[in-house]
Design goal:
Layout: H1 3-10, E1 32-40, E2 51-56, E3 61-65, E4 71-77, E5 80-87, E6 94-97, E7 106-108, E8 113-121, E9 125-132, E10 143-153, E11 156-166, E12 172-178, E13 181-188, E14 193-196, E15 206-209, E16 216-217, E17 230-232, E18 237-238, E19 243-244, E20 251-258, E21 268-274, E22 286-289, E23 295-301, E24 304-312, H2 313-322, E25 337-345, E26 350-356, E27 358-359, E28 361-369, E29 383-388, H3 393-397, E30 400-403, E31 409-414, E32 417-424, E33 431-437, E34 440-441, E35 447-449, E36 454-462, E37 467-473, E38 484-489, E39 504-507, E40 513-517, E41 522-529, H4 540-547, E42 551-555, E43 560-566
Helix pairs in contact: 1-2
């Protein structure tokens, strides 16, 4: 298999390393329906021609378009939970409800006709500007991204691309439909970057590279920490955001890979993967073969932080052949060896890197339900997944999972490093209670895996989860039907834990009630808000702000708690 096939496997990083991929089921032709109307959030005017996508928790979807009165009608739906996603040019694409089996949302019974009422669609903001080269001439075909620092889920902060476009022949760009907030703008020539041939060359000497480019951030820096944030206001255009592309010196990363005995391994190759701490990926992974002496060389590397991942050709061939990241399939056997080491590039060649690959550790143990062996049918589709805390493609390459046996036992291989364990494919009645290894609770802190096997992993599930239910009222005491609830622990250190189980948010059900199930025992706050802003509600600053007016409560193992919350109008 060629390196091009391996690059295909790299594209699989777009799948989440945390959840096994699922095939969408066919839309059920049932007897329920959802109707409603889409209006502009700022004026209340009806929104015609909006696309309304209704998605079930099986991932089945059906779409409709609003008519001249802004109304939509989605019939022939089966009983179940649904989420509505509404989009329209000039507005912010917005989701309503939830589509997870263990969350609330728009719940339909067979034959039910649910009137969702008015769905308020926020008007988007616009960013415009021009991009010039180092001589002050406009550049066409430049990729311009609007980046927003946000939490893709609680405890997992990323600088993510909210929207992107390309410049026209005048170097102009226009990015629209943006949510209000603070954004960074990054521009880069994806197809052909003019870059200084080497660190010592005169600035006038350039060499063409097709390996990707370091971005230029507004107002004109290649260092993301020096970028200036731009405020986006709903329904307004922010213009004059001009920036000049910077010529960036490219470098070489080279070294040698050896096995535990110091000899060059066979059947291995090297990935150089972007690894910014904020999770932003501005360039593709670069791949290099090893020669007979175990040497590798990766040219044309832009400044930045990377991880050098050494993987077997056989495992990557399996990934490319199956179209899977490896989640749900353990491509690494007991003899699998790999390595993952960090490297920083600042424009100077990085030579002489020595990397020693090592065997994967075998993590084995058992899954129990409230301390007892599980029923075979409860774990018939379950997998134990091991993921790293690295951002980007390195997390995917270092992930593995294995099926749980009918008796609850499992065994999965893991590369060295801090690893998080989770169980997927469980029935709705089972919830994670705790994970212990080496006699220590590693549920939320992760397991430090070295090259030694870990034979005593205990994953305990429960059929008696905690449950927090309740309603909300407005400041005048009137009951509310449309609101969202955010639950978070009193201990702020837990707000940013990876694979977070303790910071939860969801919209209320159609009857104005909420139900949060499966929280670990502890002390919490609960706050009712008018709406959830994707990427912002889990920000520590937002949680700290909510703390002052939220309702505090204590939750014991398996306890049910009922709350009445008051919605506080958000500034």
């Amino acid at each position: 298999m060629t390196l091009a096939a391996f690059a295909l496997a790299a594209a699989l990083q777009l799948q989440s390393p945390l959840t096994p991929p699922q095939a969408p089921a066919a839309v059920t032709h049932g007897t329920a329906r959802i109707i409603g109307r889409v209006v502009a959030a700022d004026t209340g005017a009806v929104v015609r021609g909006a696309t309304v996508l209704v998605q079930a928790d099986t991932l089945a979807t059906v779409t409709a378009t609003t008519d001249g009165d802004g109304r939509f009608d989605v019939p022939r739906l089966g009983a179940g939970r649904y989420r509505i996603r509404v989009s329209k040019s000039g507005f912010v694409t917005t989701s309503f409800g939830a589509a997870t089996a263990k969350a609330g949302g728009l719940v339909l019974a067979a034959g039910q006709s649910l009137d969702r009422g008015d769905l308020a669609l926020p008007r988007g903001g616009v960013l415009t500007g021009r991009v010039f080269d180092e001589f002050g001439d406009p550049v066409a075909g430049v990729s311009v991204q609007a980046l927003r620092s946000s939490y893709i889920n609680p405890g997992n902060r990323r600088l993510a691309t909210e929207a992107a476009t390309e410049t026209n022949d005048l170097g102009e760009f226009r990015i629209f439909g943006l949510r209000p907030g603070q954004y960074f703008i990054a521009a880069s020539l994806r197809r052909m970057q003019l870059a200084v041939a080497d660190a010592g060359a005169p600035a006038a000497r350039f060499a063409a590279s097709t390996q990707g480019s370091a971005p230029t951030f507004y107002p004109g820096t290649s260092n993301g920490s020096e970028a200036t944030a731009v405020a986006v206001v709903a329904g307004r255009e922010t213009s004059g955001l001009d920036l000049r592309l910077l010529a960036v010196p490219l470098a070489r990363v080279s070294g040698t890979v050896v096995d535990a005995s110091g000899r060059p391994p066979s059947g291995m190759f090297v990935w150089l993967n972007p690894s910014r701490s904020d999770g932003a990926v501005f360039s593709s992974a670069m791949i290099a073969d090893l020669d007979a002496l175990g040497r590798f060389s990766v040219p044309n590397v832009a400044p930045g932080d990377y991880r050098i991942d050494v993987e077997s050709r056989a495992r990557m061939e399996a990934m490319a052949r199956t179209g899977s990241t490896g989640i749900g399939q353990d491509f690494s056997g007991p003899d699998h060896q790999s390595a993952s080491v960090p490297v920083s590039v600042n424009g100077q060649d990085v030579d002489g890197v020595t990397i020693q690959i090592g065997r994967a550790a075998r993590l084995s143990g058992k899954v129990t339900v409230d301390g007892m062996p599980p029923a075979a049918e409860d774990v018939s589709r379950a997998t134990v997944t091991v993921t790293s805390t690295y951002p980007g493609l390195s997390a995917t390459l270092n992930a593995a999972s294995a099926r749980v046996n009918p008796d609850g036992t499992f065994a999965v291989t893991s590369a060295a490093g801090i690893r998080m364990l989770r169980v997927h494919g469980l029935p709705d009645s089972l919830f994670l209670k705790s994970i212990r290894a080496r006699g220590v609770d590693v549920t939320d802190e992760g397991l430090d895996v070295d090259r030694e096997d870990v034979p005593d992993v205990e994953i305990d599930l429960t059929v008696k989860p905690t449950r927090v239910v309740g309603t909300a009222k407005d400041a005048e005491g009137a009951p509310l039907r449309q609101f969202s609830v955010i639950v978070f622990p009193e201990n702020s250190r837990l707000w940013t834990v990876m694979m977070n189980r303790v910071v939860v948010a969801q919209p209320a059900a159609s009857d104005g009630t909420f139900s949060v199930v499966g929280l670990p025992a502890g002390r919490y706050f609960a706050a009712a808000v008018e709406s959830l802003v994707d990427g912002e509600w889990a920000e520590p600053a937002n949680l700290e702000k909510l703390r002052a007016t939220a309702t505090s409560f204590k939750l014991g193992d398996g306890e049910h708690k009922e709350l009445t919350l008051t919605v506080k109008r958000q500034d």
